[in-house]
């Protein structure tokens, strides 16, 4: 409820909880939220302020030094490091196994656009826990020794 023009609490305002906030593993949920809210350590963000400031075009990938280091570049495009490529293969395989046929079709429609693919990865309700785990793995350098925990649907 919010106040109306007369100060009364009569106005109903819908509030929606983002589905990625339902990822059960708190560390995975925080890791994904940091990417979505630009609280990550990829160069596109770390070069935005303070002593580390660099023009956006100069915030290049620390691995390939070819393009701006964004989450979508590191997750989906950069192929310099074999470990990154393997992480990507593992994630794509796991996400593909978790998705519904309709979600797989929808992912295919991104047609190689890495920004659109990243947005769609996060939007996948069936696989968002695996996507969140992926960011946690990349952030911590951890192996995926445990399966991503299920999404809790206790709200909304
Ligand atoms: Zn790169």
TrEMBL record:
Disordered: annotated segments: 137-156
Identification of the protein by name: Reverse transcriptase zinc-binding domain-containing protein
Native organism: Coprinellus micaceus
The organism's taxonomic lineage, starting at the top: Eukaryota, Fungi, Dikarya, Basidiomycota, Agaricomycotina
